[in-house]
Design a protein that fits this description.
It is built from ten helices and no strands. The protein is mainly alpha-helical and 207 residues long. The relative contact order is 0.10. GO terms for molecular function: DNA-binding transcription factor activity; transcription cis-regulatory region binding. Keywords: DNA-binding, Transcription, Transcription regulation.
């Protein structure tokens, strides 16, 4: 079995974090162990604890690293800024499947999430929405991004989801299903996501 190259003398927090994200993308959050991470870095397990107290701290740092480049929407950006943020979130989730798992694993708002919520709600309230309407729209848009990314990554899985086609539903027995599913092949996940954003937040001209 080929051994990972030794990293003595050059191991640092950034290197550990990068390798942890790489392993979580490949094996899932549950597949990450301190021992496996140390082995991949050619180090001893105790060396990892020099930079992170444990897996929980590592998970929090990994999530913060992955979302660090996503700009927050500003009041002056309006709905277009919210959409750009959601597109960026979706892109990160597609590039790094572990983000979806980290969101669920952390189970609490991170510093970035708190700042994002404050910014998003601020935009919607500034536009004149009532607090309840602002909450509903922001949550629906967030779930849309999560659901779209989950759906897209499932297509790339070992056992991808098989979608029905118009041929599965004859027009004689299921006319509505047949009509709707006949146009599905012409739509991709990104287009469906954009349509969802327009329905939840309203149309803009920033695509």
């Amino acid at each position: 079995m080929t051994q990972a190259p030794r990293t003595r003398g050059r191991l640092n927090r950034s290197l550990v974090l990068t390798k942890a994200i790489e392993l979580m993308d490949a094996e899932g959050v549950d597949g990450l162990t301190i021992r496996a991470l140390a082995t991949a870095l050619g180090a001893k397990p105790m060396a990892i604890y020099t930079y992170f107290a444990g897996k929980d701290e590592l998970f929090t740092a990994a999530y913060a690293e992955l979302v660090a480049g996503i700009p927050l929407p500003g009041i002056e950006d309006g709905i277009a800024g919210l959409k750009q943020n959601l597109r960026a979130h979706r892109a990160v989730m597609l590039a790094h499947p572990c983000v979806l798992q980290l969101v669920l694993r952390l189970g609490r708002p991170t510093e970035y999430n708190l700042r994002l919520n404050e910014a998003a709600f601020g935009v919607l309230l500034h536009l004149g929405l009532a607090p309840r309407e602002a909450l509903l729209r922001a949550m629906a848009a967030s779930w849309l991004a999560l659901g779209s990314a989950t759906n897209s990554t499932s297509r790339l899985a070992t056992n991808p989801v098989v979608l029905p086609t118009a041929a599965d539903f004859p027009p004689e027995t299921h006319p509505a299903l047949h009509a709707v599913l006949s146009v599905l092949p012409g739509l991709d996940d990104a287009e469906l996501f954009e349509a969802g954003l327009d329905l939840v937040l309203g149309p803009t001209s920033d695509r």
